[in-house]
Amino acid sequence: MSELLAAQKAKPTRTLLGTENNLSDVSILAKNPQLAGIFIWVGVDYLGESHLAPGVHGESGLLDRTDVPKAFMYQAATTWLDRPFIHMLRGSAPGRAAAAPIDNDTPLNRPQAARAAFRGATPDWTPTNLAAHNEPVTVYSNCPSVELFLNGVSVGKSSRRSNAGTFTFNIPFAPGTLKAAGYAGGGEVVANEEYQTAGPAVKIVLTPDVLKVGNDFDSVAFVRAAVTDANGVVVPNAENQITFTVAGAGRLAATDSADGNSQEQFQGNKRMAYGGICVAFVKATGSSGPITVTASADGLADGTAALDAMAGNGP
Question: Residues of the chain whose pLDDT is less than 70?
Answer without folding.
Answer: 92-120, 162-163, 314-315
